[in-house]
Amino acid sequence: MPDAAEEIVPVAARRPWDLSMLGPYFFILPAVAVMLAGLVYPVIQAFYLSFYDWKIGTDFDDAPYVGLRHFIRMIGDEDVGESIWVTLKFGFWTISIEMLLGVSLALLLEKPIRGASVFRTIFILPLMVSPVVVGLIWRYLFDARIGWINYYLGQIGIEPQVWLGDADLAFFAIVFTDIWQWTPFIFIIVIAGLQALPSEVLEASKIDGANWWQHILYVKLPMIRSILLIALLMRLIDVFRALEVMYILTGGGPGRATELLSLHIYNRAFDTQQLGYASAISVLLIVIVFFLSYGILKMGNPLKEKADI
Amino acid sequence: MSGVQLVDVTKFYGTVNVIPPLNLSFDEGEFVVIVGPSGCGKSTTLRMIAGLEPVTSGMIRIAGKDVTWARPKERDIAMVFQSYALYPHMDVAGNMSFALRLAGTSKEEVARRVRAAAEMLELTEYLERKPKDLSGGQRQRVAMGRAIVRDAYCFLFDEPLSNLDAKLRSTMRTELAILHKRLDRTMVYVTHDQIEAMTMADRIVIMEQGHVQQVGTPREVYNNPRNLFVAGFIGSPSMNFLDAELQDDELRVTGQGFDLPLPPRLHEAAQGHGARQVIVGLRPEHFAARHAGGGTEASFLAPVDLDVKVAEYIGSSQFLAADIGGRQVSAAIEVGPDSAPLTSGTYLFDTNRVYLFDKTTGDAIA
Amino acid sequence: MSYGLMKKTTATVAAILCATASFANPYEKFEGTTLVVSWPALAHFSAAEALVDEFTEETGIEVEIDALQYLKLRDRQILEMSKPEGEYDVVSWVVMWKGEYVSKGLLTPLSQFFTSGSLVDPQYDIDDVAGAYLQNGGVVGGKKGYMPGVSGALYGIPFGAETSILAYRKDIFEEQGIEVPTTYDELAAVMTKLHDAGIPALTSRGKTGHQVTAGWLLHLAPLGGKIFDDEWNPVVNSPEAVKAAEFMRHVAKTGPVGIETFGFGEAAAAFLQGDAAMHLDTLKIAAMSRNPSLSKIDGKVGYALHPVGTRCGSETGGFAMGIPANAPNREAAFLFIQYLTNKAGDQRMVELGGDPVRISTLQNNTEGFDDYPIVAEQLPCADPDWRPLIPEWNEINIDVLGQALTQVITTDDPIQPIMDKANEELRAIMEREGYYTWATYRAAQ
């Protein structure tokens, strides 16, 4: 045959299309749909609302478009600045004390000593109480007129304090309540982390001559580092979400002494009924939380790290 | 008295007695392997020496000092664990130097010793890696390195090779033996693997259910096992045990399908033994083909009929699963790599290597 | 044919029939109708349920009550009344909301019913309803759009309305030899005297936000202050307003411990539990102090007029009832409102433990109700403009005044600068919302 050019059939660069390739997408579709509906949509909606001046109870169609005016107002708004400052202060005190207490208690109660399991059970009870109930419990405990705290202080001769009516005392009260409720959370995940540590490594450190303190500082804590980071991240996000307890305990008062950013947004949206402006502040909240989380994950992404033993 | 001594040491977990009174004495510089099946108490014994497990009663002495109630770090020991137990958050250098840093050793000294150990273990180029970036064998060596830099009086090993594959394990065995020679330290090594025991130990301690069955050099425990347990545990493949009867002249032992003359070393003991019913022990490697070695049949070789079920080719020898008089035995026959698969027929057994055991107590008749 | 159209046709047919036939009683033609009523879940209204049952029994008109927590009431009502076809026949609103409802065209003017001879009972006597209540809750118009006045029109009848009176502990006053104060100066002196005797004096709302503002507003009007002048200029830093703030600080210093955290409930509880000698707020405290499950002080309470500063002025508040523009059964709804608020109905409300709205009822029930004569005497002083009922009020009330007054009662900072700052913030809000457009325009002329 006179060089009939041999046709070279190229091997397909990739597998030819076929319906079954949609399989994986089909199976994650419900999860994606739920996430879009429950997570992405509200965020987009908040962003959208932040460009309108919508007062609660009026028709949204009547709400005027205000462009960036809410954001400009926000920059000069001392109240927003103050609630961010309160939130940061609150986060600093609660998280550092909770981490310190939770980790210390976990280290102390890790060993199966007599009564430890009973204590552990009692200790995690606050975690199971709904935040609204926590708010109510402590509101009555802190009540200046009928509260137990003032009653017992009175028994030892201390003047009754207006716990929730004085800026410093009210701030102390919300920090204290948060510590009461959330230290068990740190405790429980740290103790779970400690109990999962390989016993031989811990024994190796004893043989290497670490004393109690060095054992904790150089071996145990570094080994549960990713768990500590997760706990820190979750608490930090919680600080920016915390609302119910403060709403009931102090309502943000006196003044704005205990008005965390989330509560500030709530009050703006539902008390003074400026939904658009409140949405603009929540966009700010999302940005703050995003950067904080990003920062912590940068420190060492605990979600990426595999167990390395 | 130097070395390591356990004097009347017992261990109870609650009311369960896992270690009955135990007495052991290891010489300084000796490589002792404690071997036994899992649950025999060997690890507990090692952990009691390390101070990780408190003793219930008795006394432990290291380098002449009573350390029964001393904390691990006061015992001048180093330990290598089965899982290596490396600190995951420290790099290789950090792992190896941790003990020294805790002890407040000067920076230069730490660096020098880590470098020396790393060179010895060929870890120099890995010093900055984290354990998760190392292979199993490398991690194993880091664990050794961590013990070596300590320059402790006594090294303890808790099944350190059992997580490695077969090839690496045999390499590491050799390296360990070399290491011992070089360091010249007392080493106590726990394993369930009798090959490790036989290849590395100066002395072997064989334990079962907390009891020491026999202590001796590899040669002693192989050639003169004190009882059925030791005889069955040491040697691979395991010794065959067959019910047998001492003949009236007490010079022969017979059973179904075999009739073996007793070696001279057993004559006296057999005569002194009252009961006729005994157990005879035959190691697989002491069977031979009829014309093996090409020479004439020596007088100490006795014929045995084997009914071969399977012949496994493993190179220069073949491994037989066979019956003697209806009882299953195994035999390893050296016939050269070119031989045809072996079949049923008459084989020879080296009667010098016949062992006798008391049927009721299991003790060796010797 | 749509349901709505069918309904309209039926109504037309009924109207034609009415014109020709005469009925044995005014309720007959509405028999079997079901009215839907939206009102708050509050004590006065739950007491009224018995009266509603009597209405159904007497008239054959069924009533379905949708009682909601009062903070949720407004959103729900606006939603319902904005639809082309509403569910509600009767709505009950907090007096503050009426301006918004009317400006959005959501309510039916009541004049059209009062001109219908077959609907209105000649003996109803609307002039007997306390004027301040009627003006404050029912009339919308006037120069600020939420006030009575010649340009006002009637949209609702007060029901569950209130004003403020002074309640005090007779036993404590007697024991301490204290005269009941009639002026603010006397009141301040009494508070100091009680405090010096170790007795918490006047309880008050004081929690940050609208509560502390409500506490202050009670004193603002009698002391001669206002929030705005007639040109919508804020005047919360005027000498009168500052004096009211100074008085609030005095209240907090001499009152029961924890005023800074009190809402209405806590403030009332302090008085009812015997932890305060005086309560100067809504007249509802009288019914509460007679309730043994709330009160430890029944029988020990005396009532007096809200003390006078530069003028007499008490709060007006509570609720009024009216008919949505899109109500399906407006005439029957009018009959319902009329039944609940006529003389017999008002009397029944007293018997059921509610609060009357008629002067005659107050005058006829002096036996066992020490507070009624006082209320009757107080009502002419009730000030319908005691707080501005404008859409921006929430922000002013909570964000500006609620913060400033918290600073007043929780710190010892000088008061004038606090109120000056609040006044500025208030002006900025009004500026933002365009209230000064006319002033600017005129200035440019």
Give your account of this protein's structure.
The complex is a heterotrimer of chains A (309), B (366) and C (445). With 309 residues, chain A is mainly alpha-helical. Chain A contains 14 helices and no strands. The termini of chain A are far apart. In chain B, 26% of the residues lie in helices and 34% in strands. Chain B has a 6-stranded mixed beta sheet with strand order 6-7-8-3-9-10, with helices on both faces. Chain B has a 5-stranded antiparallel beta sheet with strand order 13-12-11-14-20. The relative contact order of chain B is 0.11. Chain C has 445 residues and is of the alpha/beta class. Helices cover 47% and strands 12% of the residues of chain C. Chain C has helices at 3-20, 43-59, 70-82, 98-103, 111-114, 131-138, 170-176, 184-196, 210-220, 239-254, 264-272, 284-290, 330-341, 343-351, 359-364, 371-378, 393-410, 415-432, 437-444, and strands at 34-40, 62-68, 90-94, 139-140, 153-154, 156-169, 202-203, 278-282, 301-304, 316-322. The longest helix of chain C is centred in the first third of the chain and has 18 residues, at 3-20. The termini of chain C are far apart. Residues 16-21 of chain C have low confidence and may be disordered. Classes of the chains: A mainly alpha (309), B alpha+beta (366), C alpha/beta (445). At the A-C interface, loops of A face helix 3 and helix 17 of C.
Number of domains of chain B: 2
CATH homolog superfamily of chain A: MetI-like
Give me the CATH fold name of the largest domain in chain B.
Answer: Rossmann fold
The main sheet of chain A comes to: none
Poorly predicted residue ranges of chain B = none
The pair of chains with the biggest contact is: A-C, 28 and 29 residues
Alpha-carbon Rg of chain B, integer? 24 Å
How many distinct beta strands of chain B? 20
Entry keywords:
heterotrimer; B: alpha+beta; Rossmann fold; OB fold (Dihydrolipoamide Acetyltransferase, E2P); 2 domains; five-stranded antiparallel sheet; 20 strands; C: D-Maltodextrin-Binding Protein, domain 2; two-stranded antiparallel ribbon; 19 helices
Short synopsis of the structure:
Chain A has 309 residues and is an all-alpha fold. Chain A contains 14 helices and no strands.
How are the SSEs placed, and which strands pair?
The complex is a heterotrimer of chains A (309), B (366) and C (445).
Chain A: H1 23-49, H2 69-75, H3 78-109, H4 116-123, H5 125-128, H6 131-142, H7 148-155, H8 167-195, H9 199-207, H10 212-223, H11 225-241, H12 244-249, H13 261-271, H14 275-298
Helix pairs in contact in A: 1-14, 3-8, 3-11, 8-11, 11-14, 13-14
Chain B: E1 4-13, E2 16-26, E3 31-35, H1 42-50, E4 57-62, E5 65-66, E6 77-80, H2 92-102, H3 107-120, H4 136-150, E7 154-158, H5 166-183, E8 186-191, H6 194-200, E9 203-208, E10 211-216, H7 218-223, H8 228-233, E11 240-246, E12 252-255, E13 258-261, H9 264-272, E14 277-282, E15 287-288, E16 301-313, E17 317-324, E18 327-334, E19 345-350, E20 355-358
Parallel strand pairs in B: 3-8, 3-9, 6-7, 7-8
Antiparallel strand pairs in B: 1-2, 1-4, 4-5, 9-10, 11-12, 11-14, 12-13, 14-20, 15-19, 16-17, 16-19, 17-18
Chain C: H1 3-20, E1 34-40, H2 43-59, E2 62-68, H3 70-82, E3 90-94, H4 98-103, H5 111-114, H6 131-138, E4 139-140, E5 153-154, E6 156-169, H7 170-176, H8 184-196, E7 202-203, H9 210-220, H10 239-254, H11 264-272, E8 278-282, H12 284-290, E9 301-304, E10 316-322, H13 330-341, H14 343-351, H15 359-364, H16 371-378, H17 393-410, H18 415-432, H19 437-444
Parallel strand pairs in C: 1-2, 1-3, 7-8
Antiparallel strand pairs in C: 3-10, 4-5, 6-8, 6-9, 6-10
Helix pairs in contact in C: 8-10, 9-10, 9-17, 10-17, 13-14, 17-18
